[in-house]
Design a protein that fits this description.
single chain, 313 residues, alpha+beta, six-stranded mixed sheet, three-stranded antiparallel sheet, 11 helices, 13 strands, disordered N terminus
Length: 313
């Protein structure tokens, strides 16, 4: 998929596309970049040359990561590279800056897992004739809200990613939006359930209604949910689990469902949340029956995501 000639200037189109992806997603491996930008190339040598051109020009840097007995290269943009992307103004500015310390830090695996989740959507969209590219998800977008259970506090929901996907069927095109949360089994099930509470509260949150003047004096306007100012339909929440064996992840899914079903507030919400594993998402794709609803019938449900396309049409 071609991308605008945006940044850094004076370099080839593939190098510029790589700069955009690195700016958007902060830390990306060579093979992830290859799958996202040059999947039509059998080998990754051409992309590697473009990345080293970026590094030589001072726009990008790299660290090594040991994985499965091999060294994997992880790339990010330097301050010079980030400013070059921002100067063109085609991408939403992001204040976050990566560094060698951050690239080697404790969030490395989580950042790569979020990219891997988005890459699964991109690859299966290409296979299915849908539309989803490497810039179609944004990490860590803030959503402010208030919760009646915590009066007086202004709260902030920050999904790991907000992903846009165009589902096509014949001449019908439907934009689907998802909240993506990646869990590497490093938090307790109770903490994961708290995230569900945050999404349920954001789903219900409506700013205080305003007073409008009518024929017989002031009257209260109906409050609109805050999410309607950003989304045509409330995004489905996708929980993607990784970082453990499939057996352990299946038990984790069962525990999450059990905890959620016994929670009166969650059982009453209309939030649509599904959970799967990263391996299932990569191997079978998001439109296979790989998502188990967090609330509702047990077991993976056919067309759990594609049902969103039917509802949005």
């Amino acid at each position: 998929m071609p991308y605008p000639n945006s940044a850094p200037t004076g370099l080839g189109s593939v190098a510029q596309q790589a700069a955009q992806v690195l700016y958007q997603h902060r830390l990306v491996s060579t093979m992830q970049l290859h799958r996202l930008i040059t999947p039509h190339h059998t080998r990754s040598e051409f992309l590697r040359r473009q990345l080293h051109t970026l590094r030589k020009a001072g726009f990008a840097d790299v660290v090594g990561r040991r994985s499965a007995g091999q060294t994997q290269l992880l790339w990010w943009l330097t301050e010079k590279g980030a400013q070059s992307v921002e100067a063109v103004g085609l991408l939403q500015p992001r204040p976050y800056r990566m560094s060698e310390e951050a690239a080697l830090g404790p969030l490395q695996e989580h950042t790569l897992a979020v990219v891997e989740s988005g890459a699964a959507f991109v690859e299966h969209a290409s296979r299915l004739g849908h539309e989803c590219g490497p810039l179609d998800w944004s990490p860590e977008i803030a959503h402010y809200y208030r919760d009646e259970a915590r009066p007086g506090e202004e709260l902030c929901l920050v999904p790991d990613a907000v992903l846009n996907y165009v589902h096509t069927q014949g001449k019908q095109r439907t934009l689907l939006t998802f909240f993506v949360e990646v869990d590497r089994t490093q938090m307790t099930i109770a903490r994961l359930a708290q995230k569900l509470h945050a999404y349920a509260a954001y789903h219900e949150y409506a700013p205080q209604s305003q007073t409008a003047k009518g024929a017989r004096g002031p009257r209260r306007q109906a409050a609109m949910p805050a999410w309607r100012y950003r989304y045509p339909a409330f995004p489905r929440l996708l929980l993607v689990l990784t970082g453990a064996t499939e057996d352990r992840l299946r038990r984790r899914i069962a525990d999450l469902r059990s905890l959620a079903s016994s929670d009166p507030r969650l059982s009453a919400t209309s939030l649509r949340a599904g959970v799967t594993t990263l391996d299932q998402l990569r191997e079978r794709g998001p439109f296979a029956p790989v998502f188990t609803p967090v609330l509702g019938p047990a077991g993976p449900v056919d067309a759990w995501i594609s049902g969103a396309a039917a509802a949005a049409a």
